[in-house]
Amino acid sequence: MSLLRSMRTGFRRFGAIFYKRQRDAEFAAELKSHLQLHMEDNVRAGMTPEAARREALLKLGGVEQTKENYRDRRGLPVLGDTFSRFAIRSPHAAQITGLHRGHHPGHCARDRSHHRAIHCRPFHTPHTAAV
Amino acid sequence: MGDKADVWQGTLTLMILKTLETLGPLHGYGIARRIEQISGEVLSLNYGTVYPALLKLEQEGSIECAWGVSDNNRKAKYYKLTRAGRKQLGREAREWQQAQAILAKVLSAEPST
Fold first, then answer.
1. Element (H, E) at A37
2. Fold annotation for B5-108
3. Which value, in Å, is the radius of gyration of the alpha carbons in chain A?
4. Cβ-count burial of A66 within 10 angstroms (0-12 exposed, 13-18 middle, 19+ buried)?
5. ipTM
6. Kind and range of the H or E run holding B41
7. Closest CA to A2 of B55, B86, B88
8. Residue ranges of the domains in chain B?
């Protein structure tokens, strides 16, 4: 493969990390169209709609499996996973979030109201007079 | 081994490029069907494998795609060959023919007595 072609592929695979949901939806639509076309052909060949659908799915090799293989080829799986893990689990990221919460007036107000709701308000007793 | 042959490693993209050159813009299902038909239904193709191969070719710039409407009035994604893809097809077809010729020579060699 030429250098230019490798670079183009690399850029496109890297770019695909950022539009995951949109591309997933687009491929789901493409697979749906594929199955419809195949089912129509099968029905024209004399199959019942149910058998036509079953055969189309079988020939595809499974919708989820196909999606999985496509996703692997579309992005950079290792890099994509690393980014997700970093964003969720990194202690550094958590620390930044903690600091941010501590200094943000909105969060402080929300925390205070949460504290009041739980610790300061009396329990709700439906029939106070009876008690 | 069954009656049907599996697709050899690395040949699917070549077959896709050739199909697009022969038939012009086509959707994934049409490409898969055409490859099976042209093999005289001898080739056992898992249709799901066509899509990662199409994506690979698209990422390399050999094909491009756009949504369109099929003969049955169904929305489908159509793939077409680019100029780079046409060049790639020529190059890969030559390489494949060379490999095939070499293999044929090796296989036809007489056993030494």
1. helix A20-44
2. Arc Repressor Mutant, subunit A (1.10.10)
3. 27
4. buried
5. 0.85
6. none
7. B88
8. 5-108
What band does B110 get if pLDDT is binned at 50, 70 and 90?
confident
Q: Do A69 and B51 touch (CB under 8 A)?
A: yes
Q: What are A128's two structure tokens? A: 């106070």
Classify residue B55 by burial, with Cβ atoms within 10 Å: 0-12, 13-18, 19+: buried
**B61 vs A110, more confident:** B61
Nearest to B79 by CA among B36, B1, B18, B10: B18
Question: Per the structure block, which two tokens stand in for A88?
Answer: 């969720």
pLDDT confidence bin for A100, thresholds 50/70/90? very low
The predicted structure's pLDDT at residue A35: 96
B interface test, pick of A55, A60, A67 with most B CB neighbours within 10 Å: A60
Q: How far apart are the first and last CA of chain B?
A: 33
Exposed e or buried b per residue across B20-42, where buried means at least 16 C-beta atoms within 10 angstroms of its C-beta = beeeeebbbbbbbbbbbeeeeee
Choosing among A2, A34, A57, which should be mutated to test the B contact, i.e. which has the most B CBs within 10 A? Answer: A34
Tokens of residue B96, six digits: 């494949």
> Phi and psi at residue B63, in whole multiples of 5°?
-135, 165
- What single-letter amino acid sits at A73? R
Question: Cβ distance A39 to A49 under 8 Å?
Answer: yes
